[in-house]
Amino acid sequence: MPKIPFLPPSRVRALVAAVAGCAALGAAGATPVLASHGQLTFFEAPRQLENTALRAKTFKQLQLLGVKALRVELHWNEAAPSSKSRRRPHFDATNPSSYNWGQIPAVLYQAQRLNWPVLLTVTGFVPKWATAAHNDMVTRPDDKFFEEFMTAVGRRLGSEVTYWALWNEPNIPGWLSPQFNSNGTPASPRLYRGLFQSGYKGLQAAGLASPKVFFGETAPFGVDSIRRGESTKQEMSPLVFMREALCLNSSYHKASTCSSLPIYGYAMHPYTYPALQGTNYRPPNSNQVTIGTLSRLSNAIAKAAAARAIPRRVPIFLTEFGVETKPNPLGVSYQEQAEYDAVSEKIAYENPGVASFSQYLLEDEPPHGGEKGYRTGLETSSGGRKTLYYAFPLPLVVSRSGSGYSLWGYVRPATGATKVKVWVQPAGSGHFHVLKIVSTNSGGYWALHSSTAGSHWRVSWRSPGGVSYNGPAIGVY
């Protein structure tokens, strides 16, 4: 029978439908009240899912891990004809047959068969012929060409996509350039606004009357401004980028020349760099947004809505996130990755404005071209399983609460209310014993307050289909 074994410590607007009441939770003491909503978890595994030899195995693996939603990136330059040419070829840019869609349709088809929501992020790089100077793949993309491309995208893939995002991390010069004008004023936000409006029009032209399009997909860090003469290719802080793209000044007053944008959600990548700073890190620059400072984004969205730059009650979608591990010198241990990731998911869950969490990568990126590659995966680049591989299906957070302990967890593979076994290891003991069998709510979440002292806790669960899950030992955060 399939089994995820215990790994000893080595050291949704789319707010997913509000849970209709919480199932009674067993507890050792008073039971904490759970938040009133669940959240999607977008998972991203491009190298495996777009590999025809690995796709079927990877989908089965993701199902076992409890994955129920995907994020997929579609790169304009990879689909477009003659993308490295400075001269635009003659072709019908709104006709899907003019493009090479690669393995994307096959991935979306399989996700649709599993009834998994899909977020499709359509992004650069840009065909050279679609940029202003025709000499790179990121500088000043042509809005009209992008609109035509999005019409083709909508016609080819629209029936299999639940959510859309237009551009990935547009506040980073490697994705959209320039970030600033030569006089020091912001440039990329207005470029992005044009791309968003053109992309939205393209989807409508494809027959999608009200597409669910996310705005942002912003990276967490950056600078607020540059001085005249400084490099225009510096990363821009996300809240400065947001305000400029929505035509808002620093006081959130909207320019009368700008209309409201029909955004369905605000997408954010709230990484903490370096990871070893922990989930509670608060960057001193208040225009930067990490997992520990989501309230900054919530407040900014509320102010933007009040200024009528966006609709009311726009939810936050955390569409890319992960915790980097060693041997990156700024990464954390495998044990800390599992604990930090669970704490981050709990932070997102407890924020009523957040509609999704995410996991970037199943397997670490291998080094390439002098780049180390992201090490946020559940597995190493050679396929070895990290502690997070076992913790991901059963995230667990333990924190001190008065004279006792507060426990929070999630049974990710569950499809309804279920029971989970909670174990505790007393201080000085080499053994675990059962602390409590706890009932989850209908979304798979549970909480418990315990007065039993311990050094580590873990959880175990058996699915209705007979799969045994055993989470790793977790310490107090």
What does this molecule look like?
It is a single chain. It is built from ten helices and 16 strands. Strands 2-3-4-5-6-7-8-9 form an eight-stranded parallel beta barrel, surrounded by five helices. It has 477 residues and is an alpha/beta fold. The model is unreliable at 1-31 (pLDDT under 50). Helix 5 packs across helix 6 and helix 6 (188-205) packs across helix 7. It has a domain at 39-321: TIM Barrel (Alpha-Beta Barrel), CATH 3.20.20.
Write the layout of secondary structure elements.
Elements (H helix, E strand, L loop, with lengths): L2 E2 L35 E5 L1 H4 L5 H11 L3 E7 H4 L24 H10 L4 E6 L19 H15 L5 E4 L21 H18 L7 E6 L19 H8 L19 E4 L25 H13 L9 E3 L15 H17 L3 E7 L26 H5 L4 E6 L2 E7 L8 E7 L7 E7 L5 E6 L5 E7 L5 E3 L7
Parallel strand pairs: 1-16, 2-3, 2-9, 3-4, 4-5, 5-6, 6-7, 7-8, 8-9
Antiparallel strand pairs: 10-11, 11-14, 12-13, 12-15, 15-16
Helix pairs in contact: 5-6, 6-7
